[in-house]
UniProtKB/TrEMBL annotation:
<dbReference type="Pfam" id="PF13096">
    <property type="entry name" value="CENP-P"/>
</dbReference>
<dbReference type="GO" id="GO:0005634">
    <property type="term" value="C:nucleus"/>
</dbReference>
<protein>
    <submittedName>
        <fullName>Centromere protein P</fullName>
    </submittedName>
</protein>
<dbReference type="InterPro" id="IPR027801">
    <property type="entry name" value="CENP-P"/>
</dbReference>
<feature type="coiled-coil region">
    <location>
        <begin position="4"/>
        <end position="31"/>
    </location>
</feature>
<dbReference type="GO" id="GO:0000775">
    <property type="term" value="C:chromosome, centromeric region"/>
</dbReference>
<dbReference type="GO" id="GO:0034080">
    <property type="term" value="P:CENP-A containing chromatin assembly"/>
</dbReference>
<keyword id="KW-0175">Coiled coil</keyword>
Length: 188
């Protein structure tokens, strides 16, 4: 009986592993359908050229290197200016049809000394002339302490799906929160 139970446990474990691998494979297939075959082939060719260039010891073109440094400088400036630093981002395509795409995003980061995490779905509808985007199922988790007004504000932002207002308010609130915290520390 114990040998049979061990085998059954092993079979169950293997079934769970197969299920997990199947889900990962379907996710990767779903994400790869987001790009056209032509775009994938171009990316592969570009990668091969870069790989061959690196193996021969070639440096990237100077203008590309300068552009990258410029972009890094701009990004650093913006992060210092608004105080928001993103620590992670993940995107998963939930549904993709000819005219409609639904993506699930998870973003986490810090603003001054406050941490935050956003999770939302981005619905993109395409008609003949343009693409319309809408944020749905917005969920915000933020370390706001005991302030109930912040909780009410976050609830209203979640209901409206207004990410832009969240980031504008977060930057200002976190900056003043940090000033208040320093002032209270000083008087303690």
């Amino acid at each position: 009986d114990s040998i049979c139970q061990a085998y059954e446990d092993e079979i169950q474990s293997l079934k769970e592993e197969i299920q997990l691998l199947t889900e990962k494979y379907e996710d990767s297939q779903q994400e790869s359908t987001f790009f056209s075959e032509e775009a994938i082939l171009k990316s592969i060719e570009s990668f091969e050229r870069e790989f061959q260039g690196e193996s021969k010891g070639h440096e990237p073109p100077p203008d590309l290197k300068a552009e990258l440094e410029s972009l890094e400088t701009d990004l650093s400036f913006l992060m210092k200016f608004v105080g928001i630093q993103f620590t992670s981002h993940s995107k998963k395509i939930i549904e993709k049809t000819k005219n409609r795409t639904v993506q699930k995003h998870r973003i986490s980061g810090t603003c001054h000394s406050m941490s935050f995490q956003l999770e939302f779905q981005l619905l993109e509808m395409q008609n003949k002339e343009n693409v319309c985007s809408a944020v749905t199922d917005l969920s915000i988790v933020m370390d706001s302490g005991e302030d109930s007004n912040v909780g009410k504000f976050l609830s209203s932002i979640e209901e409206r799906g207004d990410i832009l207002t969240f980031f504008k308010s977060l930057s200002s609130y976190a900056e003043w929160y940090e000033h208040r915290r320093c002032a209270f520390q000083h008087f303690k």
